[in-house]
Amino acid sequence: MSQSRILVVDDEAVIREALRRILESDGHKATCVSSGHAALEKVQEESFNLVITDLKMPGMNGIEVLKSIKILQPKVPIIIITGYATVETAVDAIKQGAFDYLSKPFTPKQVKELVTKALDHSRISEAETWTQNAEDNGFDRFIGNSTAMQKVFNRIIQVAPTDSTVLISGESGTGKELVARSIHDHSQRKDKPFVAVDCTALAESLLESELFGHEKGSFTGAMRTKVGLFKIADGGTLFLDEISNISLTTQAKLLRVIQEREVTPIGGTKPVPIDIRLISASNKNLRTLADTGEFREDLYFRLNTIPIELPPLRDRKGDLPLLVGFFLRKFASEIGKEVKGVSPAAMAMLEQQDFPGNVRELEHMLERAVVLCDGDIIIPADMGVIDDELSENISRGQYVPQSAEELKEIKRRLREEAVLPAERSFILEALKRNDWNITRSAEDVGMQRPNFQAMMKKLGITARDNKFGE
Question: How many domains does the chain contain in total?
């Protein structure tokens, strides 16, 4: 679980020290002050995820502290702790905005459970609030309030009303097509077509035919005239995904289309005028490819009028609680399960992942977890991944399965995880030896192509995502 900043307010030093030790033993950062006035100064200096305050203190009591903090940081949950435990004071504190109430003497377990409950509630509320705001602003496809993602949102807002050409860069799985669709949906072209083209999916000759169209009889197999995607997208937006995979020959033709705003079908002689907004994307650095001659520099400058850089998930781990909450609600609703959240161990496991597949990988992991979950809380075994640290925790007895079924599942997954590295190396090396040609790779290792593809799918390796081989 990520470290939370917790403010402790109590005039008794022994209570402050006890709470500090309990909170820090659970991985939180505790800031302790001895008065309500000192608490308000701290709240004005920095933000906190949770406030724990005594009710009866000299100068400013807990209710007064609560009311003041709610003005300065209205979303922070506040727990009232007191030795004067009556129903009336508890109800009054909660009416005033306290999250919950805990009476002295308390045990470390009681404190930890209530703190976890308050922080989880805060994260869910924050996710719901942000998601609602995102939907109100038309960004319902995006989840994240990190600085990096806010820059992306702001750039979309700036560029969408224009017709400027946009180049979206970022690793596979970061959401490049979602950005392109959002730009289109917020543009003046939103009522016209949005056409997406995967430049890795087709051979060069077929790609040109798809993009520019062709005349009947212009090449073998051209049994009829075909309208190209440039023309189909007329008036709207054409999105060229993974544009770095286009050959230099096709790049030259694409540059001419962009410059002249017209396209000539293969085998045709009469240019056809087009009116499109062009957005392209790449998981490779086009500037670097241009410097090495692998991508036309003049085309790069044409495409890179407005750059948008999408951060990898490993650089925005603070967005994990929002993303996890969003995907859990989504898949629980779609699958029809009452899954309410993830266990601390499961969240800790997620926070330790590098996520080479980024948000797409997290999405698939959580979909699998919801399907496999037998209760209402996701546990590590539901994730389909047993990482090294969790394995060590299990061996040391620090993570104990709660049922025979969970034990059985963990044992199965541990056995599976033991062979995954060998399987991954086996597949990747075969693909690299054969330039990522799946048919040749399967033949090279003596496997049927369907079986080879099935293993690729199991390992989450796709031909278009060949960064694994870089």
Answer: 4
